[in-house]
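Hi,

I'm pasting everything inline rather than attaching a file, because the server keeps stripping attachments. The sequence lines come first, and each chain or strand is labelled.
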Amino acid sequence: MSLDKATVSRIARLARIRVADEDLERLGNELSNILGWVEQLNEVNTDDVPPLTSVVEMQIPQRRDAVTDGAYRDKVLGNAPESEEGFFVVPKVVE
Amino acid sequence: MADLTHFTLSEARDGLRARDFSARELTEAHNAAIERARPLNAMALETAEHALSMADTADQRIAKGDGGLLEGVPLAIKDLFCTDGFRTTAGSHILDTFVPPYESTVTANLWREGAVMLGKANMDEFAMGSSNETSYFGPVENPWRRPGDNRPIVPGGSSGGSASIVAARAALAATGTDTGGSIRQPASFTGLVGLKPTYGRCSRWGIIAFASSLDQAGPLTRTVRDAAIMLSAMSGHDPKDSTSANLPVPNFEAVLGGDVKGLRVGIPSEYRMDGLPAEIDALWQQGIRWLEDAGAETREVDLPHTKYALPAYYIVAPAEASSNLARYDGVRYGLRVEGDDLIDMYERTRAEGFGAEVQRRVMIGTYVLSAGYYDAYYLQAQKVRTLIARDFQTAFEGVDVLLTPTAPSEAFATGDKSDDPIAMYFNDVFTVPASMAGLPGISVPAGLSQAGLPLGLQLIGKAFDEEMVLRVAEALEDAAEFNAEPDTWWETST
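And the predicted assembly:
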């Protein structure tokens, strides 16, 4: 497994992490090393083995679909890098 | 008053109840010790004034005779637990100004039981690391050094600050979190007891998420008894965490003081790996003899998929991390770096806010979950995980507990492994399998390496059988008689 620069660039985009062009090759090598190492899992025969979905056997709890929390807008906005009149502020999304 | 920092947690608790000293005196001594220990860089935030006010409240409750399990006991809290009104960073630049407006369930449980918060402990960024070198706030040093050698030694990770500050006798205990070994491996590196409970024993609510199917809170302490007391205080059902187990919390301390006669201890043959240092293997064999001498039976067991646990972990954990860390987008909290448009703002924020190891893992996780690769990587890893869990189930049909080394080496020097991610990942080779199966594990200090650094042994138990793990841990602790302490070089360093 060896990731080319275009693939690394695509992964970085999906992950929303800006990677400078000059770093793509180094990062590609690092990621390729890790992926090459995890690929030893292909040696394991997993025919008829279900994927693990819960490590501990338990019943999924159910609750009433009701509002039980809230009404503290200022707390929610307290850590926002930018807020205005009770809203989060983001760069313009729609032209 | 310096002697007040050398009690175990249980001794301090008993001394407080007997009014031999006050919670204020105990807290003052620990505040001072934390200040002296600053060269270790173990704390991300010191809360000395708050600690004194909590101690005064504890003293009033003790005077009335209605103190909790940890009334007046000063603790350090890993900086992954949200603490209401106190900055919580996860060791990351992206959260370095974050002040939670709420309290994690585990820390709320501790305060309900009367514990005192000394401050927040430094850690690997987002709990991703095995040496505490990935923190935005700089590496943590281990109080232990090789005798005659003043090179800095890592405390392990990711709960490295928690381990370092307890080993330095500046907190009676600390909380940690363990995703693949982040409590047990630093405990082994610093001569402490580190307990990762069964997945679901402690609520994850308010703990900054790394890999949600693996993350579990637990204590770092100087004795097995202290770990039992801490676990009783930390655990319990929490409706706010849908994976929190709805089970009664035993009085874990009550199982101690017995013996291990007739208990069956499994020795997994697959853990005898190529390249295991001779002194680690020798200590493991010593551990087997100790438990046999105490009346336990030991027998070999097979866990055939052991070697695949680590690579499976490095698919599952980054996949979950890439999803969990998607929330850091520069909008609702934390760092924002302005950009040309919304996407550019996200990308610049995350590039500047996340360190190299976090970026690597988020990208690995993004890749293994992406269209066309999901089945080959993620699904295959989750199937292998089923086989790992089945291995343990089969082994536990014939034994009560498993005994293994905690880590494949002693603590290493700062910088020794930071350039090689996969070499760093191998630190967790003995701790990850139990994490993948959700099982409880404990590291108990068992001896010193030839170079004079602590080494631990690990016990792994059945799900929700922490009582068995603690019982056998106490027998190991009694036999090992580990009472070495690091030289206090940091108290005189400038």
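The CA atoms of residues 12 and 19 of chain A lie 7 Å apart.

If the labels don't parse on your end, tell me and I'll reformat.
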